[in-house]
Design a protein that fits this description.
The protein is mainly alpha-helical. It has helices at 2-25, 46-53, 61-65, 69-76, 85-89, 108-115, 166-175. It has a domain at 61-175. Residues 156-176 have low confidence and may be disordered.
């Protein structure tokens, strides 16, 4: 019967060594959060170290709302409410000091990330307004020249007025 117990003791010794090394090597605040291992496998205390080393590149919608409450409220009332401001306007790392105005990304590819057809039945893209072939829908023209991303809901009558002449919308988005 001793030939059966030897492998068991070897396995128990290996498990004990691994647990002992983990206790010695892994910091006590590794992965410990109020709600468990929620947002990653890193040391909670290391966040302060990294915050001092690097600036936060993306500030979030609350930061934008301090100076632009009208724009934020129009987005929150629209079907674009899940899109953060910096997805279209770029990172606000030092804004408004440097740069005083954020560049507006007008590339069609930005809109196509959500509005292009995706042939997967579970993607739910068919429920998002778009077009079947973007190459046929005003090719070469930025979407914001005709569509106001702050008020994209064409089903609401008061927002249909947002689709104005190309020149008017371009001037509005070049302005801020």
């Amino acid at each position: 019967m001793s030939h059966v117990w030897k492998p068991v003791w070897v396995v128990l010794a290996i498990v004990g060594i691994i647990l002992g090394l983990r206790f010695i090597i892994v910091p006590p605040d590794f992965g410990i959060w109020d709600r468990g291992y929620m947002y990653g496998w890193h040391r909670h205390s290391a966040e302060l170290f990294w915050k001092d080393q690097f600036k936060v590149k993306y500030k979030g919608r609350d930061y934008c709302n301090n100076c632009h409450p009208d724009k934020v409220s129009s987005i929150l009332a629209s079907s674009h409410k899940n899109i953060q401001c910096e997805d279209c306007h770029g990172p606000a790392i030092d804004h408004p000091d440097n740069p005083p105005k954020l560049a507006i990304i007008k590339d069609r590819g930005l809109c196509l990330r959500c509005h292009a057809y995706l042939p997967y039945p579970t993607s739910l893209r068919s429920k998002i307004a778009g077009w079947p072939n973007p190459d046929e829908h005003n090719p070469g023209i930025a979407c914001v020249n005709c569509h106001n991303p702050h008020s994209p809901d064409f089903s609401k009558p008061d927002l249909n007025k947002e689709v104005l002449k190309v020149k008017d919308i371009t001037e509005r988005y070049d302005g801020n």
